[in-house]
Task: inverse folding
């Protein structure tokens, strides 16, 4: 009987465009669209910034130090045109009008200070709303400063290497896989939690509140099927829908990494492929299934109590934020899976998944996380049953 | 056969409900100690104004609600102790029943037949007979959401009868339907009677009751005001028509209560 109800509810759900959009289409497309858009926009911005011929205004004398040095910088570091100004007021005014992109003030004592081996002040003016201009000035100055330093060392008769008493080397012993696990591993459970929740939401409301609203629940309750069987049949679809939405989101993310700018991400791709082995997938789903059951168990009593689709939606939607917030813990560095965090629902799943990706998993802690989530899932199913079995809740 | 004795149903009122009903009572008495019997091959009508307790009574008969006290026997089965078994004997149809709009009539009937554990060979035979009888062949494969009210009502009838129930419960089955569509229900009730099924239906329309029923019970505010055959009712009338007599009985009970 549970399977009969499950089959019918699944068919009904798969014919609902709204659920289909939330369960399959959006999760599968969102990451390829976002990543494609982000990659192409950032690429075009970078290209535009690099190719942009900028105008640099300098307040200083004809053939001043900065003017000569800037002219000597190769075109590869960005094309430029230098304009001399008499005062900083007109230079700043032109910067504000965007007829200049960078401005510099070279004091009249600049050359004298340089010759006497003293620090020579140089002031750059830029408009921070014009992206990348500070970085352009810093890039030019890195070249000019290095050249000036070398000249001073020669003048002082000092070997440049001698000015660096200690050469320090920092060696990272963590593998790339561990690095990705610890730093970016939080994204995976976050996606799963966010999309798992959204995936459960529409079927939960449609199969419980919707059935109440449409007046079909009364007929269903008069059939010789136990209420727990009806609940389990419907819950199965809610859980499957949550898992499908989360899986689709992960597949979307995987395909985005796989196909978008694959040349630039060859190293990342290699690591992702090494992470995605059958053991990882089995362990990941064994953690995520109780989580999705817990979500379903949380939403069903709300959907059962609600009198309309709108009422159910208005209660469940803010709950999404409450569930996703603990998932953010995955992005904080330093928080690890231990006996305390393994007992905190949702947080334990996030941290365990991170450890799983990094390959530094303590099986005892994972078992503890799994037990906590399973207990919660069982508790939420019992709670759902109590609400569903309450005659005044299921009939409007 | 339906045997109901000393049936009572109380609902606990929430604070919100107490506020809405302007009462301090924590309990609302929906059905107050009623007893009646519906015989096979006869049509029993539960008559009462809105809020009389008709729907609550029928929901207890179909085991959606559990009685606070009293007993219900459906085709000899104790419906309070064995609700699941009792439900297998019942066909339930209400005027407000919805159908799964995204499924087709064929799929809905197959689904309910599976829930009632109707064997496959019997299902096909019954489905064909009912589809032909109700002229449903043309739209059996169309989505229910795209059907007219009349077509949907035919699907509901087919859904109610697919497991060939011994007892058929109709809760205001014609409410909101036009005359032509309501006629399908009237025909169905008559057919059930001819086939020897036990039929109980609730209504507040006296003309409908007059047309169909053999036995009658009038309830108001959960209390039984009259129970007997339609002939008894007619012969004891103190007014010149059925509707006036129904109103007189309701008013008399209200006056007695004051």
Result:
């Amino acid at each position: 009987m549970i399977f009969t109800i499950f089959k019918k509810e699944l068919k009904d759900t798969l014919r609902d465009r709204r659920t289909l959009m939330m369960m399959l289409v959006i999760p599968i497309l969102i990451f390829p669209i976002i990543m494609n858009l982000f990659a192409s926009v950032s690429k075009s911005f970078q290209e535009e910034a690099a190719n942009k011929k900028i105008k640099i205004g300098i307040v200083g004398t004809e053939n001043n130090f900065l003017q000569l040095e800037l002219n000597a910088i190769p075109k590869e570091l960005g094309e430029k045109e230098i304009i001399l100004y008499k005062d900083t007021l007109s230079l700043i005014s032109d910067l504000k009008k965007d007829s200049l992109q960078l401005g510099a003030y070279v004091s009249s004592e600049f050359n004298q200070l340089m010759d006497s081996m003293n620090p020579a002040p140089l002031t750059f003016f830029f408009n921070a709303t014009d992206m990348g201009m500070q970085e352009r000035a810093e890039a030019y100055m890195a070249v000019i400063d290095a050249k000036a330093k070398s000249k001073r060392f020669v003048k002082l008769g000092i070997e440049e290497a001698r000015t660096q008493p200690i050469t320090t080397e920092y060696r990272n012993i963590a593998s790339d896989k561990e690095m990705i696990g610890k730093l970016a591993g939080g994204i995976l459970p976050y996606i799963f939690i966010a999309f798992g929740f959204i995936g459960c939401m529409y079927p939960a409301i449609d199969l419980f509140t919707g059935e109440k609203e449409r007046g079909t629940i009364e007929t269903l309750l008069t059939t010789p099927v136990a209420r727990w069987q009806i609940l389990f049949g419907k819950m199965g679809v809610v859980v499957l829908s949550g898992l499908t939405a989360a899986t689709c989101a992960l597949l979307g993310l995987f395909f985005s990494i796989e196909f978008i700018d694959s040349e630039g991400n060859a190293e990342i791709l290699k690591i992702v492929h090494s992470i995605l082995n059958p053991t990882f997938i089995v362990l990941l789903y064994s953690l995520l299934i109780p989580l999705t059951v817990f979500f379903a168990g949380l939403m069903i009593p709300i959907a059962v109590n609600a009198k309309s689709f709108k009422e159910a939606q208005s209660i469940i939607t803010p709950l999404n934020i409450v569930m996703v917030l603990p998932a953010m813990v995955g992005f904080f560095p330093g928080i690890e899976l231990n006996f305390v965090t393994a007992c905190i629902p949702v947080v334990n799943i996030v941290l365990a998944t991170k450890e799983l990706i990094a390959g530094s998993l303590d099986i005892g802690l994972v078992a503890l996380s799994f037990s906590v989530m399973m207990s919660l899932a069982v508790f939420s199913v019992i709670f759902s049953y109590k609400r569903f079995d309450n005659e005044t809740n299921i009939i409007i | 056969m339906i045997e109901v004795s000393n049936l009572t149903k109380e609902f606990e009122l929430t604070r919100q409900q107490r506020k809405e009903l302007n009462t301090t009572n924590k309990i609302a008495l929906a059905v107050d100690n009623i007893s009646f019997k519906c015989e096979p091959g006869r049509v029993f009508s539960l008559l009462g104004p809105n809020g009389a307790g008709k729907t609550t009574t029928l929901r207890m008969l179909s085991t959606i609600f559990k009685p606070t006290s009293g007993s219900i026997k459906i085709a000899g089965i104790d419906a309070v102790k064995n609700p699941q078994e009792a439900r297998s004997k019942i066909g339930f149809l209400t005027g407000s029943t919805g159908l799964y709009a995204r499924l087709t009539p064929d799929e809905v009937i197959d689904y309910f037949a599976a829930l009632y554990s109707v064997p496959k060979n019997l299902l096909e035979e019954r489905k064909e007979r009912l589809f032909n009888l109700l002229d449903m062949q043309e739209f059996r494969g169309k989505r229910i959401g795209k059907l007219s009210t009349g077509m949907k009502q035919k699907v509901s009838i087919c859904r109610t009868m697919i497991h060939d129930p011994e007892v058929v419960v109709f809760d205001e089955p014609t409410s909101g339907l036009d005359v032509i569509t309501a006629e399908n229900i009237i025909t169905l009730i008559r057919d059930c009677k001819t086939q020897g099924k036990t039929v109980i239906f609730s209504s507040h329309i006296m003309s409908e009751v007059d047309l169909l029923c053999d036995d009658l019970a009038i309830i108001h505010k959960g209390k039984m005001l009259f129970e007997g055959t339609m002939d008894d009712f007619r012969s004891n009338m103190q007014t010149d028509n059925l509707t006036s007599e129904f109103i007189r009985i309701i008013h008399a009970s209200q006056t007695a209560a004051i």
